[in-house]
Amino acid sequence: MNVRIHQSWKKELEPEFVKDYFRNLIDFVKTEYSEDKCFPPGSEIFAAFDHSTFEDTKVVILGQDPYHGVGQANGLCFSVKDGISFPPSLINIFKEIETDLNKPIPSTGNLERWADQGVLLLNATLTVRAHQAGSHQKKGWETFTDSVIKMISDEKENLVFMLWGGYAKKKSKLIDSSKHLILTTGHPSPLSANRGYWFGNKHFSKANEYLQKNGKLKIDW
């Protein structure tokens, strides 16, 4: 499995890569990919760690699982490949950006353009079996991504963490709120958004205000 990870991240993630749980996880993933159709493509499993350097990372958005439909997942949470119709959660993300920043809804749901600016689009679980949501949960990915979140919090400062929905909010315990901005709101899925838990959160303008206040370039959402 020829995965792509930026060199700056390899150095930071190496301590996890050599642990027993991670080796067992990779064995599981290799078996799954050889026996079933799984997503994202093998080379894109670690895409979140490939688009921007560790040093340039300034925003973290946490998702739960990759999309499990054919051709959707590209290794970045909430993102889909070019030409794929927008999943409901992504539509609601773009609607919030439209009202928050007066930006038109884009023609593609591919969020690589965010990742290239230093937005870590991290799913808690990095792989999934086709058409079976949650099929790779509790196999070790959460241990890995929890360690990543804590490491980023410990080693960096003045980052923005966007935690959407109950699952993501629980990760706030891994983050040092004295030196980072933690933004929480409901999940952008229709179930939550239509009940008033998503729209109007203004996370995107709040993130940019915080970044600029701390001498960092804002994100072109």
UniProtKB/TrEMBL annotation:
NCBIfam families in alphabetical order: PRK05254.1-1, PRK05254.1-2, PRK05254.1-4, PRK05254.1-5, ung
Catalytic activity: Hydrolyzes single-stranded DNA or mismatched double-stranded DNA and polynucleotides, releasing free uracil
Role of this protein: Excises uracil residues from the DNA which can arise as a result of misincorporation of dUMP residues by DNA polymerase or due to deamination of cytosine.
Pfam families on file: UDG
SMART domains: UDG (SM00986), UreE_C (SM00987)
Active site: 65 (proton acceptor)
HAMAP family: UDG
Originating species: Christiangramia sediminicola
This protein's record includes keyword DNA damage: yes
Superkingdom of this protein's organism: Bacteria
Record-linked InterPro entries: UDG_fam1, Ura-DNA_Glyclase_AS, Uracil-DNA_glycosylase-like, Uracil-DNA_glycosylase-like_sf
GO molecular function: uracil DNA N-glycosylase activity
Lineage, highest ranks first: Bacteria, Pseudomonadati, Bacteroidota, Flavobacteriia, Flavobacteriales
Keywords of the record: Cytoplasm, DNA damage, DNA repair, Glycosidase, Hydrolase
Protein name: Uracil-DNA glycosylase
